[in-house]
Amino acid sequence: MTDGTATGSLSTVADPRPLPNAAARWTKCVNCEAFVYYKRLEKNQKVCPECSYHFRLSARERIDFLLDPNSFAELDAELMPGDPLGFTDSKPYPTRIAENRRKSGAREAAIYGTGTVGGFPLVICALDFTFLGGSMGSVVGEKVTRAAELAATSRTPLLVCSASGGARMQEGTISLMQMAKTAAALATLAERGVPYFSLLSDPTYGGVSASFATLGDLIIAEPKARIGFAGPQVIEQTIRQKLPADFQTAEFLMEKGQVDLIVPRGELPSMVKKLLRYHLREESSEESSVVSRTLPGIDQSSGVGSAMTAIGEVAPGLSAWESVQLARHPERPNLLEYIEAIFDDFTELHGDRTLRDDPAIVGGLALLAGRPVMVIGQQKGRGTRENIARNFGMPHPEGYRKALRLMQYAGRLGLPLLTLIDTPGAYPGIAAEERNQSEAIARNLLVMSRLPIPIVCTIIGEGGSGGALALGVGDRVLMLENAIYSVISPEGCATILFKDATSAPRAAEASRLTARELLRLGVADAIIPEPSGGAQLDPQTTAAALKAALIEQLAGLHGTSGPDLIAARYARFRAFGDFTEGRASAGTAA
Amino acid sequence: MSMTADSAIPAEAVESVRAGLAALDDGDFQAAVAHLTAAARVAPAVVAIGRRLGEAQAAAGDLAGARATLAATAARAPDDAAILVDLAHVCQIDGDGAAARAAIERAADLDPTDPTIRLAQARLYESQGEMALAARGFAALARTAPTPTILNDWARISLALGEYREADAAFRQLGALDPDAELVARHGRIWSQIGRGDWRSALEQALGAARVDRYDLTTALLAYARDRLFTRMPQPAIAAREAELAARFGAELREHAEIAAREGDLIGRMSDEREGARD
Description:
Number of helices of chain B: 15
Distance between the termini of chain B: 14 Å
CATH architecture of the largest domain in chain A: Alpha-Beta Complex
GO molecular function (chain A): acetyl-CoA carboxylase activity; ATP binding; carboxyl- or carbamoyltransferase activity; zinc ion binding
Oligomer: heterodimer
CATH class of the largest domain in chain A: Alpha Beta
InterPro entries (chain A): AcCoA_carboxyl_beta, Acetyl_CoA_COase_a_su, Acetyl_CoA_COase_Trfase_b_su, ClpP/crotonase-like_dom_sf, COA_CT_C, COA_CT_N, Znf-ACC
Subunit structure (chain A): Acetyl-CoA carboxylase is a heterohexamer composed of biotin carboxyl carrier protein (AccB), biotin carboxylase (AccC) and two subunits each of ACCase subunit alpha (AccA) and ACCase subunit beta (AccD).
Family (chain A): Belongs to the AccA family.
Strand content of chain B: under 5%
Main location (chain A): cytoplasm
CATH superfamily of the largest domain in chain A: 2-enoyl-CoA Hydratase, Chain A, domain 1
Order of helices and strands of chain B: HHHHHHHHHHHHHHH
């Protein structure tokens, strides 16, 4: 130091942390090769600020980044693996474990415990890829299992953060058995109605992806994370084909319907907090009282509340064909527009877990007057481009299977289900038939009839046949004033029965497809008034009326037990039919 | 002449320094810059304040500010290598490679025994495309302070330069040092031997690797070594196969580099303490 220059020790002013060494202060991004100052990288939760590359995290870092500060209480940290096979490759398994411990500073490839996110409690388990590739042996399997068991007994949501190459070869078949063990523990958790969120980070493969990682009620992935069962090289060698560049990335899986959400690391705490908030138990939440407060004077014993109109109150001014035109009006508000206007904090969930994410069906969690609900409906496009993308609101089987998954999830978690129906019908196409469109619709009817949760179905536009009914088995069925609901389109009916497509207006009238007629037939329970001339002329007013109606209906169903809901729903649909019973006259029987 | 803290930091700057350091630690870089700027105004000669201000500016992404602050601070403390290292990186990110090189070379001259400065220097050389200088730097570090990260860097650059003998040595050392790098080290040795045209060794090495891994890259390398040894491959086919193998091995090497990066913290702990003592 030159004379006259003050060095100045900052330690006397409580320097919280000495600077790391010269090389460690500047990290070179492995993706874009930019130098990033360590403080900047830390602040950015180890996401490169230049290219958004998500650096791999240790289990500790994952928990530090995700949970509220100082909220994590680790459990069973002392679990140690045995050596069930006496395994040696280039060195004995116990030696390999010891070396990994020394190198990584971790005791095993997973840690678990309890903590909070945004003040909401959860059980968390995080895998550590830096320890033997995050492989699942006895200890990882045991920790995931104990985490699930703790979540089940304490009825606390579970989050498992995966990063793993798969089952641990050094423990042989015992590691394979961890897959079954963890899956069984998660089955118990599901039976208890406790939510399980699975976070997939890069990489998640093999025995981990083929067990607990892909069994989440909700599956979240980090951007660009690689996720799959077999590695891409193995697949390439097997099928002798070049794989697409994005094969097995989170984005690829999202398109294929395998993950619900892709969430950048920096947004994970707020997303997890949001998800936990949806799953507040009703009895302990403020939301249920919010619903009550917003509904003064509602007669909760009646099926129909004051926001709706009974028979005779709807001005009978429009013909059936005019209603058809309004229900199909290109400016008529669509599902996402109603969701935006009616609900708070909507989180769209994606995919059927099997084939793809069908954009013709939109579903997700939301708050209605503060109360968590599941919302599902058909989405038409606004304009040609979006209409093509949304297939004009005509779902494929995978769309109905996405809806089914979300309905079952709501059923397990006790969340009311609201469906908003607007479809010309299920998509009639080769691929849809190949994937069994009929079964997809039928399965929804069957499952909806037995869901132990309040279900309110509203036809907001077109209620096209089985494709509409697949979301339409509810405790209450509402219709917007100019919505229609029919077994076939008027054009189809005219062609088949009247042998003349131009007779569609006559077919519309004959089909009794308007809200007014369906209210009279008992198919609809109530009509939600629209502004004169149709919802498209005043979407806000229509949305407000729909919102009030949904709140009223949920309030009416609130407090009814699951079995009572199922029994009433059964009775409701059991009653449909118009026939007479009489003894067959003599001689008519064969 | 070193001065004590109490005499070096005027009382009126202490609060600003304290607030600045706390903000820096909390990740509130703009607040840190504001507090430390106020402190530096009161105590412009205190090197540690200048350095922390430069750090806050770098963290906040204010490259011009960081560069000016660090250059001024380095001028006041011309024997402080750590400030020069930071200045070099800020200059490099700012696109001034010549200034970056001058700063890192001055830092290395000041403290030739600090491996972390050597490592930073070699990485900067690589970023500037000075691959031969970078390779020399990593090779020296591999002799004196080998870590998986350094060996990975040395091997990778040696491969890029076509220096297969050095790459083979780096991979051999990596395999011996890092228990988890056995496979990547074996693959690296196979690749280096292929590069040297030593097909028999490559084949033997690949057969050895098959004990650890029956799929993936091992099989591909094994098959390629076999084909080159026992068949006549046309040149276009050779080029295509080697490009594919190079891409796959490059990805494996990058993955190892990221996992092993934590090892870089280990080499530096001793010098962290030295730098901490300097503060």
